[in-house]
Amino acid sequence: MSRFVERHPAWALISIIAIAIALWLVFAVWPPGLEEAIGRKRVFLNAVFNGITLGGLYFLVASGFTLIFGLMRNVNLAHGSLYLFGGYVGYAISTATGSWLLSFIVAFILTALVGVLLQLIVFRRMEGQDLRQTMVTIGLSIVFADLMLWACGGDFYQIQTPNWLIGPIELPLVTAIKSSGEPVYLRYPLVRLVIFAASVVIGVAMWLALNRTRAGMIIRAGVDDRDILAATGVRIQLVFVAVFAFGAGLAGIAGVVGGTFQSLSPGEDIRFLLASLVVVIVGGMGSIPGAALGALIIGLAEQLGSVYIPTYAIVVTFLIMVLVLAIRPQGLLARR
Amino acid sequence: MSKCSVGLLALSSLFLSSAAIAQEKIKVGVTATLEGTYTVLGEDGMRGHQTALNVLGKKVGDKELEFIVASTDATPDSAVRAVRKLIEQDKVQILLSPLSGDEGIAVKNFAKTHPELTFINAASGAQETTYVDPAPNFFRYNMDGAQWQVGLGKYAYEEKKYRKIATVGEDYSFIYTQVFGLVLEFCGAGGQVTNRQWVPLGTKDFASVIAALPDDVDAIYLGLGGADAVNFLNQYQQAGGKAHLMGGSIMIDQTILSSKGNAKNALVGTIAASGQADTWEDPGWQKFVKAYQDAFPPNKRFPSPSLLATNYYDSTMALILALRQVNGDLSNNQAKYKEALAKIEIDAPNGKIKLDSNRQAIGTNFVTEVVDDGKGALFSKVVKVIPNVNQTLGYDPAVFSKIGLPSRTVPECKKY
Q: Which helix (H) or strand (E) is B222 found in, with range?
């Protein structure tokens, strides 16, 4: 941190000012002039929170994607199908048992199993042939999409939010002051906050597991050079299967999350595949912190865009991707 | 040698027989949105189409109708691609297409490049399709989005006493047309539309849109459909929304009212207007509902047909009945058939339908209110039936043309 300040004093100053402005926008009561210029504070705060929570969902999908890519150099274009599959499993479990939490566990296990099968039956047979693997995953995603359409139909499925999570809560952020002098606090859907908190916990746990444990060390070594790692006697195939299972399981969990605060239907697989591709390209292929940063940027861009420039909201995320590709093609936080 | 000649004989007889069949068949291409945001709408449209075939049969004189289905995703280019494929590869002679608003405008323009063929609109409802520069071979037996809103503005103002409303709608031609119809009538009665929000088709996360809804309005009008509507309601419930709602024609529809989950319950009591009402007592309507219910097992259909099913039913009905009038005669660039289509008056389940000089339907409209049937199923209940609604909504054509074409900001909120 201090080295960064020493090397780029101008950039450090700019980023400190930007952070200060952002904090002021969130915590201060807006003067009337500002409200007139860019709308009510409630709308702004909601958009920011929505962007961050949506980023949490994108992170769940994209982190599995980027983990698999980082270790196996396998661009798994069937990742979106795993997301949708997890969502449908979650729906089935939550309607059958009425338990929302159980649906996460079952969705994780089942999608992880699908991941294991994919790795054992398909990818292991074409190791090192990146293009062929990518083509196969495209084919698989089409097959999966049709199988799910056949099994579940084209209906919209929503996973029931448990009763204790329905409705908004008040956050200690003042959005306005009433004429009586009484402050108005921000009301925000509880379920989104819980989901965001969960994705932060998962992200931090993943980071800790990767950087502080032996298994994480092996995976990081595999990302750097899997041939040398295999030569040291690590059973690399086992590591591949485990990582693929974990990445797929994360997509399954994300499916349940997506089914809870959005909805599940055919076509969602492609949408989330695209979202995670953009996130990973912005953040840097193979980097977990990159996926987190990319998800946050894309989530915020989508939500702020949909409020302040609705006409061009769709373009914004792709503009960001183009900018990143032009200025820093390896992604914002990639090492190489 | 003998084996070979037997083979040749078999092959040639196959060709002959297929040629013989080809003479007796009339090929019809059908498109529906079987992918993307409007998947559910497309599927139910196809159920309506199938119901019509069950009721009317596929025979026209000594010829048999053959239907070839192609899928679209509600974007104009997907519709043109599907129609082009049906014409060029499958050699269809008649088209029943498309389902969605923007698709309709694109297919109408495409129809001009094939003046020899006949295009029958399946369900699309943008005003521009038949109002601006209509194609002479494009026929629409359903009303447009603005016609489907007739009665709603007055009912909201006079009966519900709403004075100020805001709208949220998908950003494309059909919803522009719906909001056009609503604003014209509501503002004409003296109401105010303070805010119009537009979201891209296929939006999943509405949280910010919901946060930006104004507080100081009496009701919020929702012009959403398919997955978008379900997502909106789900997130609206999570955000603790409590405002009165009003709905467009594909919002208050079985495609949404029978979605899984409980977010739809926010819609009980919502007023809406559409080309049909689920609980209408009319015997023709009840007969259609019965035919629809009998055609599919309960888990493969909605409790009652959606607007899309009705539209596909009506347009298939017009297609077949007019073809029977001319006894399947498609000679001379289908001239006789087109004439019959322009003149035919069909006794559709949702009221009598005839075409105006632009080949646009004049029909019956319904103002409805969503009710719970006591067993958790939601239906739209008739409040008011308005017959003979034409495309200029009862305005003098000269006055109507001054209002402008439906868009994000047209019409202005004033009395025309």
A: strand B219-223
Kindly report the nearest CA distance between residue A158 and chain B, in angstroms.
6
Whole-Å CA distances, B226 to A135, B129, B143: 32, 22, 20
Residue A294 near residue A282, CB atoms below 8 Å: yes
Residue among B124, B179, B192, B123 at smallest CA distance from B152: B179
The continuous run of DSSP H or E covering B68 comes out as strand B63-71
Which DSSP symbol is given to A121?
A: I
Residues 296-335 of chain B whose Cβ lies under 8 A from any Cβ of chain A: none
Residue with tokens 């049909």: B276
Query: Residue holding tokens 């990742």?
Result: A79
DSSP string covering B360-410:
BEEEEEEEEEEEE-SSS-EEEEEEEEEEEE-TTTTS-HHHHHHH----SSP
Q: Is the pLDDT of residue B142 over 80?
A: yes
Q: Which two tokens stand for residue A269?
A: 């697989």
Q: pLDDT per residue over A46-63, tens digit each? A: 889 989 999 999 999 999
The H or E element that residue A169 is part of is: strand A168-177
Which of B210, B238, B306 has the highest number of chain A CBs within 10 A, making it the mutation to test binding with A?
Answer: B238
Q: How far is A230 from chain B (nearest CA, A)?
A: 44
Q: What is the DSSP letter of B326?
A: T
Task: Name the nearest CA neighbour of A184 among A45, A37, A49, A308.
Answer: A45
Enter the pTM of the model. 0.81
Contacts of B259 in chain A (CB under 8 A): 155-156, 158
Q: Which amino acid is at A189?
A: P
Cβ contacts of A46 on chain B, cutoff 8 Å: 207-208, 210-212
b/e code A250-281 from CB counts within 10 Å (16+ = b): bbbbbbbbbbbbbbbbbbbbbbbbebbbbbbb
Task: List Cβ neighbours of A215 (8 Å cut-off, separation of 6 or more).
Answer: A209, A242
Q: Write the pLDDT tens digit of every residue in B20-48.
A: 445 579 999 999 998 877 888 999 999 99
* ipTM given for this complex: 0.71
